[in-house]
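Backbone shapes recur. Consider a single case.
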Amino acid sequence: MTKVVNKVERKVEKVAVIGAGSWGTALAMVLADNGNETRIWGQNIARIEEINQCHTNEKYLPGIVLPKLIQGYVDLKETLKDVETIILAIPTKAIREVLQKIVEFQDKPLMVVHVSKGIEPDTLLRISEMIKEEMPAGLLQAVVALSGPSHAEEVSLRHPTTVTVSSENMAAAEYVQDLFINQNFRVYTNPDLIGVEIGGALKNIIALAAGISDGIGYGDNAKAALITRGLAEIARLGLRMGAKPMTFSGLAGIGDLIVTCTSVHSRNWRAGNMLGKGRNLDEVLANMGMVVEGVRTTKAAYQLAEKYDVKMPITCALYGILFDGVSPKDAVDGLMSRVKTHEMEDLTDILTD
């Protein structure tokens, strides 16, 4: 069966979104807008009933009416019945547990699209690597990452949004591009999976730092410096891990970094802002009510900096705030008093790595 959407002929698919939070729900809306039979799985029974009966998800997307093509499920096996493509829209720390449940009953290969942004501490694995560890080769068609500057709140309002998809299998990336693209949600492809995943994960660290700076009251000059130097830091590590330089000047790099460091929609910026105003980490996380990926990723990036012997002063300063009890003001002031260096040395290192 096909359907014409925005003058593009599409094959109607059955797609399962795993995760009924703000981002999962917003992406389910995009899929449903494109005519797909869209299933969304969550563990909160009341929320799934709300999606099915009221076509809303007020906790995460207040005031938004969901397309009727979205159907909520609490039974994971039923959610995946006759489905070939799943969208993983769950926190990084929950990915292994959910995939292990899927493997118990799944008998047909799945296309797995992950839209989370993080790195696993201790193992130091990117999300695509975690997926490959948990999914037997016979159950995995391909892994695709979707990333870029894209707040769920704006996607749900159908405001113009641009993202990128990446995979080691570019035919799979192009399939996902076709699945999501429409007049409001533009999708590019990028063959650099490492760079897309690293850029998406590490920008959360810089957003936490930007929020801290704003919470202290340091203003736009300091935040611009954090964003600029943060990008250099992300690129240094990414290139050492095998990413391509140009990825960090694109949507998954500077694009995602800007929006996450400057928007009140950003949970990482909001968490950092509270830290900068003097709240402790436990209080901040309890107040947020949502996962702040940048906290776990800071630990992972700190470990990666040691492993690859890469200078990451912002990450190290944030690690001190989150895990060693360093005051936010002392950490930011410490960044400003570092030994002088030449800006072009960093740029040369990045471009010639």
Observations:
- The CA atoms of residues 144 and 299 lie 25 Å apart.
- The radius of gyration is 20 Å.
- Residues 1-7 have pLDDT under 50 and may be disordered.
- Residues 193-216 form the longest helix (24 residues).
